[in-house]
Amino acid sequence: MSMFHLGWFLGPGITVQGWNTPNYAPSYEWTQPDIYQDAARALERACFDFMILEDTSAVPYAYKGSMDFYLKNATMTPKLDPAVLTPYILSATKRLGVALTLTTTFYPPWILARQMATLDHYSKGRIGWNIVTATSDAAAQNFGYDKQFEHDQRYDMADEYLDLAAQLWEAWDADAVRMDLESQTFIDPSKVKAINFEGKYYKSRGPLNVPRSPQTKPLYVAPGGSPRGRKFSGRNAEVVLAGGESIAEMKEYRAEVRAHAKAYGRDPDKIKTMFIAGVLVGRDKRGVEEIKENLPKMRQRRFEAHLASLSFLSGIDFSKFELDTPLPEIKTNGMQTMLRMFKDAGPKATLRDIGMRPPGWELIGTPDEIASMMKEAMEEIGGDGFLVTGPVTPRYINSVADELVPVLQKRGLTRKEYSHEHLRDNVMAF
What we know:
41% of the residues lie in helices and 15% in strands. The chain has helices spanning 34-45, 68-73, 82-91, 109-123, 137-142, 151-169, 227-236, 247-263, 285-301, 303-314, 337-345, 351-355, 367-381, 394-410, 423-427; strands spanning 5-10, 50-53, 97-103, 127-132, 177-180, 185-187, 197-198, 203-204, 219-223, 239-242, 272-281, 361-365, 385-389. The protein has an 8-stranded parallel β-barrel, surrounded by 8 helices. It has a two-stranded antiparallel ribbon with strand order 5-6. The protein has a two-stranded antiparallel sheet with strand order 7-8. Strand 3, helix 4 (109-123) and strand 4 (127-132) form a beta-alpha-beta unit. The longest helix is centred in the middle third of the chain and has 19 residues, at 151-169.
């Protein structure tokens, strides 16, 4: 089989990493960028394509109708700004891409486009954008709204937002900057144009005051578990941040997104569907047994935090539900992936059942065993790679970068070196 791609999804966001677990690294100050810079160096050593910096825009209050649990347990908060961390990661690396999370629903398009173009210049073409629409009323209220926009409308807005952003990024011709001393011309005025964009949701005269960047636009990364989210990915995404708890589910997901892409006239092979995977590496069989023995205790310890996270993402206060009674039908204007997760759990599933399940696909084994699992999954799914998720504590990230990846490279499954300077070119190399 051909090689597959590796990315890192920083699921906890820019926060204290594993503060109440054995993985905690007390030598790092959690408000400083050092732990992320060291993690990025490890990922670049392992030739990961990119690192995705997750984010949300609120201190939640959905669980028990209060911020208290979230604050006391550092659940879904605090979160520092990924756009500010990004230059620190870029300064510590040469080839690793960085995809930062910014929401289309609340971020003004012109500001986002300018910021991304600047970062793409500073990184020499290594910037990606994890495009989210935001889900919670808490986030909406931080930006002056009473509640979140309706789910599908958020994606309609995002489609138009990307159309506007693309025009802003392309408003400068690639050769607009001349710096010609003889004619005393720094910028050729004929090669920079106003766009005068006017849509249903957004309006902008343009152009940016930033020249065209090395990639022209950032690599588009898009999550989306709902039918409308998958359609959005098919229209826009270059990397799809995908979930899935089984190989069959992942295969179906990829096929649907590729079908949407084809319907929009796009080449499906230009979309890389990458699946979130929790990877727990044991150095030997005894190490693997210890991980499996400790997992139920860890999940029990994190059970209420998981419910609080689900409450924030869905907007439903799960503290009001009986833990051991089958769940009623759930409806939400929040993250629609929640509904799919509940449906997949079965009609008799209880909240305790769901809270104790692993979040997505989980791979536990020795480096050789996990490499085999990944290979078999990719052969069945058809591509395109994995997004390893977890805290960036040295113990965890090094188990992947220095124990698992060398086995993948030895088998010819992942790259041993970067073939291009720009992030998009590396992602599209195979």
